[in-house]
Write a structure and sequence with these properties.
The complex is a heterodimer of chains A (about 240) and B (about 160). With about 240 residues, chain A is of the alpha+beta class. Chain A is built from 8 helices and 6 strands; from the N terminus they run αααααββαββββαα. Classes of the chains: A alpha+beta (about 240), B mainly alpha (about 160).
């Protein structure tokens, strides 16, 4: 029995159907030419792969990684720069309004979920109401108060994103968690929630991503987000 | 940002693919840089849930085809003098390894681009025929015949001793 080149090559590449593969294997038992041919094709395949595989182990040149890390930073910085450079404040305000308005709607939803789960005023939940304001409580408050973005563990229920000084001169931090994500600012010794969207666990309601939270954060910033050292200093000073 | 993160993780493979296409380390990294720039500019065109590697490889290979065509040049041929300079000072075994590797480079160099990209996608990058054919916008039959002809040429180039 003879097999055409396409079939032999497909067999070597694992692209043959099971019936054909069995027929080839059966034929190889008696057909030395076929067995040699397949051995050669296999050897070629591993030789070519072995030639290029080390490339994937080489360190990637900085100029390539820098392109991507710069782009990551620009996603936040661009909107910050645009806002800062924007002369038409009204228009900037309106551009931000979409997110803010949507945020308010989402916050209503979140309230339903979060409050429904934990009940108003109980500090076990991530959000509590105090004198008409929504403030972080429980583990969310702990994360905002004590967690550094640079050294957070996987165990924490919340991940801290950006820390920055807002235009109303408060320290604000973005966070992301299972039930709720958003931005909280430290005022009068408590973390007041400025933005809130449903977290990952309530994906049915989730309409925003961390990039939208970042865009909102950028619109609130008086200055660029602090680095790891700045974050540590702010924590030592009680986020003032 | 997850997009950039995914690209970062893909970079080592992308460099390997580019090396296979260009057969030259500098051309390969230039090609990767152009591909990353284009991907970042066109990120909206990538559909979440589809394979990012296929999308990137397609961008990369399209840029390479444009580059080769625009330059109207014969693709780069490995410079044997450079290779010899590199082996100077290496011990004997390393030298043999390098000579061995440059055989593959030379054999790959003799392939037309359409065969080489099929060979790299399937033999090096491990793409299934169907995925590779989709990426290259060709029927599976065309892909398999390129693979067969490419392999024959490589066997000849490597002196059938592979």
């Amino acid at each position: 029995m003879t097999f055409d080149d396409e079939t032999i090559v497909a067999y070597v590449d694992g692209e043959c159907d099971a019936v054909t593969a069995r027929r080839i294997e059966k034929a190889m038992e008696t057909d030395n030419l076929l067995a040699d041919r397949i051995a050669r094709e296999r050897a070629l395949k591993s030789r070519i792969a072995a030639h290029y595989d080390p490339v994937a182990q080489e360190p990637v040149p900085d100029r390539l990684t820098a392109l991507l890390t710069a782009s990551m930073e620009n996603n936040v910085d661009n909107s910050f720069a645009e806002r800062k450079a924007g002369k038409d404040r009204k228009r900037a305000g309106r551009a931000g309004f979409g997110i803010a308005q949507w945020g308010a709607m989402a916050a209503t939803l979140v309230l339903g979920i979060v409050v429904g789960q934990f009940g108003l005023g109980q500090n076990a939940g991530p959000v509590a109401q105090q004198e008409g304001a929504l403030i972080a409580s429980g583990q969310l408050e702990t994360a905002l108060e004590k967690q550094l973005a640079s050294v957070q563990s996987e165990d924490s229920r919340y991940r801290i994103g950006l820390t920055f000084r807002s235009r109303s001169d408060q320290i604000c931090r973005s966070f992301d968690g299972e039930a709720v994500a958003g931005i909280a600012c430290k005022a009068d010794g408590r973390w007041q929630l400025e933005e809130m969207i449903p977290g990952k666990a309530t994906s049915g309601y989730r309409q925003a991503s961390s990039s939208e939270i970042n865009a909102r954060a950028a619109a609130m910033m008086a200055d660029a987000p602090v680095d790891a050292e700045g974050e540590r200093q702010l924590m030592e000073n009680g986020w003032k | 940002m997850a997009f950039e993160q995914d690209l970062l993780e893909l970079l080592p493979q992308l460099r390997r693919f580019a090396r296979g296409l260009t057969r030259n380390i500098d051309d390969a990294d230039d090609l990767c840089q152009m591909a990353l720039e284009r991907a970042l500019n066109k990120r909206d065109q990538w559909q979440t849930g589809t394979r990012l590697d296929s999308w990137m490889y397609r961008i990369t290979r399209n840029i390479w085809i444009d580059t080769v065509r625009a330059a109207g040049r014969r693709e780069h041929v490995a410079n044997d003098d450079d290779a010899m300079q590199n082996v100077a000072g290496d011990d004997h075994q390393r030298m043999e390894e390098r000579m061995e590797l440059s055989d593959v480079d030379r054999a790959m160099d003799l392939l037309p681009l359409e065969q080489r990209e099929a060979i790299v996608l399937v033999l090096v990058e491990g793409f299934a025929y169907k995925e590779a054919a989709e990426l290259l916008d060709i029927p599976i039959g065309t892909l398999t015949s390129r693979l067969v002809r490419g392999r024959e040429a490589l066997q000849r180039g490597l002196g059938e001793a592979a």
